[in-house]
Design a protein that fits this description.
The protein has ten helices and no strands. With about 180 residues, the chain is mainly α. It has a domain at about 60-180: Tetracycline Repressor, domain 2. The N and C termini lie far apart (about 75 Å).
């Protein structure tokens, strides 16, 4: 048995996802390439295909990790204002990751159990905080969707530069007013 100086041990899958989470705000989703990632962590680019079917598979898993980070951040807020503030601050702090997460289509959860599970954690938390005690599941779902659509739209318009530039706290305050959680 020969030993190779280039042979590498470690969790290539987790290391790759962590690297993308570190890089995405700097280079954007379009700047993420399998070849560059492999070079950065010191493996052949084909090695990444053993862990992710393709670039989209990798990005689905990064999106899943983004939802996991968001779900963890949303565990503490037990009232709507704090929940919305936390959600908005996450999107403002990580706009490229947020955009990647939100572009994951509903059916992408079929290709990634992690994505489906982590997205569902965020949804379950939103239902618990934004529609507490609502017995009608359709009414609860609509209440959460209405708030989420406004927050999501605001974050995307802000990231695109469509809205008048505001400091993050001003933006959060304005969004709280828009969703009816603060006085106008």
């Amino acid at each position: 048995m020969s030993s190779r100086a280039s042979y590498r041990h470690g969790d290539v899958r987790s290391e790759t996802i962590a690297l993308v989470l570190d890089l995405i705000e700097e280079v954007g989703e379009q700047g993420i390439t399998m070849r560059a990632l492999a070079q950065h962590i010191g493996v052949a680019h084909r090695t990444l295909h053993h862990h992710f079917t393709d670039r989209e598979g990798l990005l689905r898993e990064v999106g899943a990790q983004g939802f996991a980070l968001l779900a963890a951040a949303l565990e503490a807020p037990d009232e709507p204002v704090a929940f919305v503030e936390t959600y908005l601050r996450f999107g403002l702090a990580r706009p490229q990751l947020y955009a990647l997460m939100m572009r994951q289509r509903a059916e992408a959860g079929e290709a990634s159990a992690n994505l489906a599970m982590e997205r569902n954690r965020v949804i379950a938390r939103a239902l618990a905080v934004l529609a507490p005690g609502e017995r009608d599941t359709d009414t609860a779902r609509r209440r959460v969707m209405r708030t989420w659509m406004m927050l999501h739209g605001g974050l995307l318009l802000n990231a695109a530069g469509t809205l008048v530039a505001r400091e993050p706290e001003q933006f959060v305050g304005e969004m709280l007013r828009i969703v009816g959680l603060a006085e106008a």
